[in-house]
């Protein structure tokens, strides 16, 4: 019987992370998935903003 | 004395609010002396499953920062509302959407296409995009649903207090923490950690009659460091923004962008600013008005820099 271990959230870092670990019948790690359950879309919403304003916008990508 | 149970959570945020809490420096030890942290992803290792097990109302105070951008943010907002006696919308994103809510000028699909397909640094020939459920050989993986609109916290759950700022300053945070510990909080629904007067009231610059003949972009002039920035033709949101930030941008010779939010009694910070500008433009003809206003390159993104979740102007999606 395989088993699933979920680490949610990954802590003590900037941002959101989630890890799913799947174990096989012997308890060994069969597969691991690391997921980022977050998106804000700076790549899109910076479009159309004046370039001189960007230092005060993109500094909010990461404030840590 | 029974220690308070304190949670600090981030939804769609940058972590700057969390760091602002740490910016109280050694006073964090005073906070630890009176409060047990029960959730704080940036600093402690509590899991969502730990919060799920808590009884309703068992968290005394939750400082919730970040906007509500996806279904996980909404789920956490609902869960922390249920578990917390006092829920504080902490920082501009939770109060009014903040910088992430600039995405409300864009369509959901356009954002996903840009991020996962079109950016020059992206290689994604199969066009993979995040979906709520993905089948893998071992089972199903889940991701939150990316909403079409960025919400403030109070658009999702009832909020007890609002603490604006991007981020709130450490001095204001310490004042609010002291008020919480002493039980000396204002009536529910109040804005805390900000002043009742505008930033102009705090601004040390010399102010005279405002008569604007031309607006400048910040790179087009080197402003006089002692004179009102708005009088010099720089769009400064000081007149329509609460004080409390310590005038940090102003002190760096940069105009205010309004992160402390609208003044008491004002719903629409952006509309209020448009009204202010109308009063100070020095023009005699319609042509002159249009010429002066043409100097404002991104009015919506400037006047609603931190408030697109709560603005009456609803952007691309509503």
Automatic annotation (TrEMBL), chain A:
The keyword Oxidoreductase applies. Keywords: Metal-binding, Nickel, Oxidoreductase. Coiled coil: none annotated. InterPro entries: NiFe-Hase_large. The keyword Iron does not apply. It comes from the Bacteria. Its cofactor is Ni(2+). One of its GO terms (molecular function) is metal ion binding. Belongs to the [NiFe]/[NiFeSe] hydrogenase large subunit family. This is F420-non-reducing hydrogenase large subunit.
From TrEMBL, chain B:
This is F420-non-reducing hydrogenase subunit G. Coiled coil: none annotated. InterPro entries: Hydrogenase_assoc-protein (IPR051349), NADH_UbQ_OxRdtase-like_20kDa (IPR006137), NiFe_Hase_small_N_sf (IPR037024). Residues 14-179 form the NADH:ubiquinone oxidoreductase-like 20kDa subunit domain. Pfam families: Oxidored_q6. The keyword Membrane does not apply. One of its GO terms (molecular function) is iron-sulfur cluster binding. Keywords: Oxidoreductase.
